[in-house]
Amino acid sequence: MKLISKINKTFLIYGLVIFILTDFIIIFIGDYFIQDELDQQLSLKVNEISSHIKKHGTFTNIYPTDISMQIDECIPHKFEHKDTVIYTYAEQQDTPFREYSEVQEIHGRYYLITTRIMKMEYDDVFAIFSSFISISLFFLFVFVLVFTNRMNLVIWRDFNDNLIHLKTFTFNSRQELKLKKTNIYEFDFLNSVLEEMSNRLRREYSDSVEFSANVAHELRTPLAVIQSKCENLFSKQTMKEDDIIEIRNIYTSSQKLSYTINSLLTLSKIDNDLFNKMSNVSVNDLIKSKLKKLNDIISYNELEISIVEKGEFVCLMDLRLAELFVNNLIGNSIKHIEGGKKMEILISDNYFSISNSGLKSLVRPDSVFDFLYKESENKESSGIGLAMVKKIADLYGLESNYRFDDKKHIFYFNKIETP
User: How many Å apart are CA 178 and CA 198, to the nearest integer?
Assistant: First the structure.
């Protein structure tokens, strides 16, 4: 969840709680004041009736709102506010009233004066009042929510732009990382830390790339000299057979070392993201092209190769790495083929596999893609090819798997579905 969404969600939850509580509190306070206003009006009405009796000696009752009744018992200073329900003929139903009763002494006589106000009118007023308050608070809440959301978008705009810039930033470019100034202390402080860290990492990255290139160059040069000298020695007619065998071993070892250096340099370039010329690559075409180039070797070794295409496996890759990926897979299968000398290739839209016949399963099948791991006694095996295949597969979101089934070593790869 994005931070701004988290902020809005938190504000929405707490805002709703505060809105509901505030609404209830305001309605409760409003009800209290309306009730108090009714009681004051009733008290004033009782005093008016009392004054009328004092002046005229009698009062004409108006049922059910204004009633005075002479009583024999002396209950001085008795008064009471309460809610009551009285059947009214006008409404043809029980109607709620607010009632106030008080006993007063007038000219030596005691009168129980009762006055009432129909609550229905005030309930309607209160309902309108409470609805108005609720609607007003609701619109205020929505306004604050929208305003806060817009304000957050403005505040976080530069931060989000910096995130996009960071996502696309690469150490391959010679430009230093420069982030937008936000005029917010925390964001600008974070930007300064990131800029300083990126500059330091960029220098270390450049040193690493330069070191790898220099090492490869320094090793390739003497290896090229060794191979050249070996080739010159092969052309001499006076060489003994034992000497020729020794020189051939030297030449083969230098070739193997050269391959190892090139592989390690390629792995370093992959780690440093130097293969970034992306395009949609058809694995079908690469496999058929590689097999066509190896046609002489396939014929010489009498290999039986079958290709079943149920779809086209297309992946967004750097073409150089895609070719290396396919070359290592096919080369590994041909190199380690045993038994029936069969190779089977199955390709679909989201899956492809390459299998070769074998006599027995690997002792440690889970380690088949590990760097420098090998079980074969074949001296040409370096333990780097499949590690490079796994590295390339991981780089482009392919799941690498191996199993031994029906006397076949099967390497299969799936596209990993992204959420």
Answer: 10
Same domain, 389 and 297: yes
Domain span holding position 342: 278-415
DSSP string for residues in 9-67: HHHHHHHHHHHHHHHHHHHHHHHHHHHHHHHHHHHHHHHHHHHHHHHHS----BTTTEE
CATH of the domain at 320: 3.30.565.10
Element (H, E) at 282: strand 278-282
- Average pLDDT of adjacent 10-residue blocks, the chain of 419 residues: 69 78 77 81 88 86 84 67 79 81 83 81 64 78 79 78 79 74 82 84 75 74 79 74 80 78 77 80 91 87 88 91 90 82 90 88 83 66 80 88 88 77
Question: Do 248 and 328 reside in the same domain of the chain?
Answer: no
10 Å Cβ neighbour count for 413?
23
Are 221 and 334 in the same domain?
no
**CA distances (Å), 100 to each of 40, 80, 125, 270, in order?**
10, 6, 21, 92
161 occurs within a structural domain: no
Residue whose pair of structure tokens reads 């709620």 in the numeric block:
96
DSSP for 162-186, written as a single string: HHHHHHH--TTSSSPP-----S-HH
Last residue of a domain, one of 90, 116, 142: 142
Give the chain's radius of gyration (CA, Å).
47
Peptide bond into 64 cis (omega under 30): yes
- Say how many domains are in the chain: 3
Residues 282 and 401 in one domain: yes
Crossing angle (nearest 10°) for helices 241-271 and 385-395: 20
Structural domain includes residue 147: no
Q: Does the residue 226 lie in any domain?
A: yes
Are 124 and 232 found together in one domain? no
Label residues 35-71 b or e (16+ Cβ within 10 Å = b): beebeeebeebbeebbeebeeeeebeeeebbbbbeee
> Using the 8-state DSSP alphabet, how is residue 366 labeled?
G
